[in-house]
Structures are given as C-alpha cells and as structure tokens.
Write a structure and sequence with these properties.
Blueprint: H1 11-25, H2 31-35, E1 42-43, E2 46-50, E3 57-61, H3 64-72, H4 92-114, H5 122-135, H6 140-147, H7 152-162, H8 165-176
Antiparallel strand pairs: 1-2, 2-3
Helix pairs in contact: 1-4, 1-5, 6-7
Length: 178
C-alpha cells in the first residue's frame, strides 16, 4: 500500500516514500547508511557499504526497483547515490539529520493517510523487511547477515521485539478461558 500510493501531487511525500522503499529494497538499510552511500559504492550490479553503526561491510545485489528510485533524482554534482546530502559546502552530518527528520515527519503523514496503526518511520522499513523475511521462513542466520547484525542472537532479540502477536494471541486465549 505504501509503494502503490499515488503521491504525484506531493513531491515531498513522494521523496519520503521513495527513501522508505529504498530502505526496504535494500534489506532495511538504516537511513544514515543510505545518506552516505556514494555512487562508487555501486559496481557491477552490487551495492557495497559499511554500516555506520557497526562498521560491518555489506553487499547487496542491485535490483530494478532500487535503480528506479535512483533514476528519479538528480544527484549530479554530488558523489552521493541518493539526494539526501545535496550541498557539498554544508556539513554532511547536519544535512543527513535534517533529511531524516523531514522524511520521518512526512512518513508519519503517509502512515496516517493510509490509516496505519503505528507511526510510519524510516525504521519501520527495517522492521518490515525482517518481519516479512521471518514470515517466509527465511533462516535467522540469513536474516542476521542481511541486516548486518553482529550475531544471530541480536537478530533473535530484534525479531522477538517485533512480533509479540503470537504471545498476545496465547494470552487472549488464556484470558477468554477464565
């Protein structure tokens, strides 16, 4: 529903959605990592980058929907792949922080427009990717590697925090039986 929403009349919402989808397409890439992606990080159909949080090197096969988003925006005059850090004469970290704030604000509006029960943020793309991967019975080891976690234990904790619905259903059954 987020991907297919017609936002042609609101370029700033369209931009926020595009960055959300790019994150999702790249296995839930963190916004900070997206901000610092450089054009040279994409070679021979593989996007490679180092996670800001852990320093871990990740490699992602470049897919068509990623290219479609990159093609939508003019980043000539910058070494960056995405239009997050745009002005080479202004502090990059400040630009990334401002963009993250703007995108999250606009994503919340998109979420409200769609009637989502949780606030939509750039981090939700990461949660969604992990949850969908788990629901498709992708092994924890694969999800862990895809997300750049230091260990499978981190991934288990992460996934447990995402999906309490099974436990909630069990609790409901117990309470209803009283």
């Amino acid at each position: 529903r987020i991907r297919d929403l017609d936002l042609t009349l609101s370029p700033v919402l369209d931009y926020a959605r595009d960055l959300f989808m790019f994150s999702f397409y790249t296995r839930g890439m963190a916004f900070v990592d997206m901000a610092y992606l450089k054009k040279k990080d994409l070679q021979n159909g593989v996007l490679s980058y180092r996670r800001q949080k852990t320093g871990q090197q990740l490699f992602i096969k470049w897919e068509k929907p990623m290219q479609e988003i990159v093609d939508k925006y003019d980043t000539s005059g910058t070494p960056y792949l995405l239009p997050i850090i745009r002005d080479m004469d202004t502090d990059a970290r400040k630009q990334y922080k401002n963009a993250a704030h703007l995108v999250n604000d606009k994503l919340k509006r998109i979420g409200q427009q769609l009637g989502l029960v949780i606030p939509l943020t750039s981090y939700v793309a990461r949660h969604a990717w992990a949850s969908i991967a788990k629901s498709k019975n992708i092994p924890i080891s694969t999800i862990s590697e895809a997300m750049g976690h230091d260990s499978e234990n981190t991934t288990r904790i992460y996934l447990a925090s995402l999906d309490t619905s099974i436990v909630d259903k069990a609790n409901s059954l117990i309470l209803k039986s009283l």
